[in-house]
């Protein structure tokens, strides 16, 4: 029987309790599990069409900027996505960005000629403890495989970009969840690679000291990880409002025990599927009544709850991984088996 994850908050989840409960959003993974190579690529597609021609309103919030992502400057300036969102390891950012450019050119051959260039969007976390990151094993084909695998049924745990990630001294990885609020859906997907063992909080209960004791973890171990948080919603929000939504990801992250440590790169991106922005000036801009500011609070709550829930899903669904130089990460539920079926 699959272990039950503690349920965060009182808001109802969507049908899948996944980011893909936001209509049109799909997720795909490509997992590399080959000896010392324990890494991968995860792709979030905001819609099934041509994202370069039909851009998606978006905004980012850099909670702590110890990261090496590509594409955030243009998202901040223009407030749109024009490629799918890619997640991978730190040293694979360049390869995946090139893969995104190739994909965009294949669909739009005049990019960089009669059309403007494209803004690839790649987020990263450092999986070098479990993965031989110097092998630079991720290539264009792995990004393409993740795109081809994109669907509504999202795997979580030690898959895709999450294969080599660690959280709280145990196995981290991909987590996802959703919440319904105010007549809309907010979905979250996280790449969890953060947290020291003694800091872990689960559904308001501090279990970090016990976890650290069982792992025999150094009490003064500094925070060296990161987390990437992707929020999707079908609420009609503009880029300014989406940045406000992205900032609330930090509330859900903090509830798990994170203090956004010096060595942690904590970045959130939020996008809306309620409308698209045409690339060509000859096409009419969308006329979309936006949600009033006074109606945002339920979405803020949904963002915080879905992020916290997604982090727990990453921990609950991760499997142990062993890799180079004898490095290994146990699954949280193997270390603390009493958490398997919370009351």
From TrEMBL:
CDD domains: DmpA
EC number from the UniProt entry: 3.4.11.25
GO molecular function per UniProt: aminopeptidase activity
Class of enzymatic activity (EC top level): hydrolase
Superkingdom of this protein's organism: Bacteria
Keywords: Aminopeptidase, Hydrolase, Protease
Family note: Belongs to the peptidase S58 family.
PANTHER family: BLR5678 PROTEIN, D-AMINOPEPTIDASE
Protein name: Beta-peptidyl aminopeptidase BapA
Taxonomic path: Bacteria, Pseudomonadati, Pseudomonadota, Betaproteobacteria, Burkholderiales
Underlying gene: bapA
């Amino acid at each position: 029987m699959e272990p039950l994850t503690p349920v965060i908050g009182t808001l109802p989840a969507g049908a899948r309790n996944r980011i893909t409960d936001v209509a049109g959003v799909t997720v795909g993974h490509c997992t590399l599990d080959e000896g010392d190579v324990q890494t991968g690529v995860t792709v979030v597609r905001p819609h099934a069409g041509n994202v370069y021609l039909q851009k998606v309103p978006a905004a980012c919030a850099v909670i702590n900027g110890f990261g090496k992502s590509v594409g955030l400057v243009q998202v901040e300036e223009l407030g749109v996505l024009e490629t799918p969102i890619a997640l991978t390891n730190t040293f694979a950012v360049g390869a995946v960005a090139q893969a995104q450019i190739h994909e965009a050119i294949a669909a739009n051959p005049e990019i960089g000629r009669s059309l403007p260039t494209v803004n690839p969007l790649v987020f990263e976390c450092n999986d070098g403890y479990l993965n031989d990151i110097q092998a630079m094993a991720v290539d264009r084909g792995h990004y393409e495989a993740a795109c081809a695998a994109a669907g509504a049924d999202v795997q979580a745990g030690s898959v895709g970009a999450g294969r080599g990630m660690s959280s709280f001294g145990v196995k981290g990885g991909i987590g996802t969840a959703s919440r319904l609020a105010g007549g809309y859906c907010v979905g979250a997907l996280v790449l969890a690679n953060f947290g020291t063992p003694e800091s872990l909080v689960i559904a308001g209960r501090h279990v970090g000291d016990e976890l650290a004791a069982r792992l025999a973890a150094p009490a003064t171990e500094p925070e060296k990880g990161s987390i990437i948080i992707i929020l999707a919603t079908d609420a009609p929000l503009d880029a300014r409002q989406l940045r406000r939504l992205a900032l609330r990801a930090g509330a859900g992250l903090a509830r798990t025990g994170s203090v956004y440590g010096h060595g942690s790169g904590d970045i959130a991106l939020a996008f809306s599927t309620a409308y698209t922005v045409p690339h060509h000036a000859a096409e009419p801009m969308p006329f979309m009544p936006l949600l009033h500011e006074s109606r945002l609070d339920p979405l803020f709550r949904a963002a915080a709850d879905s992020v916290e829930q997604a982090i727990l899903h990453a921990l609950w669904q991760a499997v142990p991984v062993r890799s180079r130089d004898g490095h290994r990460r146990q699954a949280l539920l193997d270390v603390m088996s009493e958490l398997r079926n919370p009351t």
